[in-house]
Amino acid sequence: MASKRTLRSATRLSDISVPDLTGNITTPASPSGHVRTSDATKSSKVARKPSQDKAADLSTTPPKKKVKREHRARTPTKQTISLASFDRPAGPHSTNAPLSTPHGSRLVTYTQEVLDSSPSKTGIPRPTTSTSRLLDQACAHLIQADSRLQPIIKKHPCKLFSAEGLAEVIDPFQSLCSSIMAQQVSGAAASSIKNKFIGLFRDDADDGVSREKSRFPPPNNVAASEVAFLRKAGLSTRKAEYIKGLAEKFVNKELTAAMLINASDEEMIERLTAVRGLGLWSVQMFACFALKRTDIFSTGDLGVQRGMAAFMGRNVQKLKANKGGKWKYMSESEMLLHSAKFAPYRSLFMWYMWRVEDVDVAAVENS
């Protein structure tokens, strides 16, 4: 475990030494997106310095006319930004995504204060990796637990838990609202409702800004709106009530980004499922796709059931024809038993089980 002295001496979160899965202390390698000054650039800078001989001739040689050149600033790519600017400590039972607040600030789990404090004081477990290394460590763990996963992992790169995916800033209120909007409708319908919902809160619908690019309304604006007004986005009365109620909980601080950062997996699920309109499946998808928690496993998801059954060699088509009810592919106890060895990376195991049966999870990822 890294000492407090080591942690305090770090000038950036990406410089902090974190233990790997074997318990050894390692320091994350420099991100590949880091921009370095090339030798050619350095030599050109040296070449631009006037020599002593040239300096001596300035009195006799007329100065050359300076040509004004335009220098275009280099814009970092998305990958450069995510890898170089957002590499930070991460852990399997923590919120690994940066979260935004209604006031525009951003929160991460492992601040310097948390790293300098004991887990017994903060309630947050020590980081076991960094965001640039999490996916590799998780995949290595899955393959070690069951080598049959290796070709699946190789065929389907998981962007969700990559360094780029973990750098995505999440607005928890927007994500939970989107989850409610997407319930029992197609992905296209959910996207249309969301865009109309955003459009309701624009000050000027003709200002030339695309509604799709507009900012999602903050909780206080939604909480102050009537249900009838929210229904104009194409929401049912019940969904409009759910979203208004959710906004009120964010306004009165029952739900906050800080709570979602600090809560354990169990506490987070308990707090969110207590909100009207958020069932267990919706909360589990939010924890996996938005918060980027790595040990979430939804036994009630039919796609996960079907993928696990196929992965274990069962005849999925035959099982589909049977009247097995909710657990026609696999029982809940079987799913929990066979997935246990993949902890604490069952979120990734779940993601790969969707890939086994080509389950489309784009609507959930986008929400």
Question: How many helices in DSSP terms?
Answer: 22
Provide mean pLDDT, rounded.
79
Strand order of the largest sheet: 1-2
Taking the sheet with the most strands, its summary is: 2 strands, antiparallel
* Helical content band: 40-55%
Strand content: under 5%
- Distance from N terminus to C terminus (CA atoms, Å) equals 37 Å
Shape: globular
Report the radius of gyration as a whole number of Å: 26 Å
- Secondary-structure-based class equals mainly alpha
Order of helices and strands: HEEHHHEEEHHEHHHHHHHHHHHHHHHH
Number of DSSP-assigned strands: 6
* Poorly predicted runs: 1-61, 63-84, 204-213
Overview in brief:
This protein is mainly alpha-helical and 367 residues long. The chain contains 22 helices and six strands.
Walk me through what this model shows.
This protein has 367 residues and is mainly α. The chain has 22 helices and six strands. It has helices spanning 4-9, 39-47, 52-56, 78-86, 112-116, 119-122, 134-145, 150-155, 163-166, 172-181, 187-200, 219-223, 227-230, 237-251, 257-262, 265-273, 280-290, 302-311, 316-321, 332-339, 346-356, 362-366; strands at 18-19, 25-26, 89-90, 99-100, 106-107, 129-130. The chain has a two-stranded antiparallel ribbon with strand order 1-2. The protein has a two-stranded antiparallel ribbon with strand order 3-6. A two-stranded antiparallel ribbon has the order 4-5. β4 (99-100) and β5 (106-107) form a beta hairpin. α10 (172-181) runs antiparallel to α14 (237-251). The protein is globular, with a radius of gyration of 26 Å. It starts with a helix and ends with a helix.
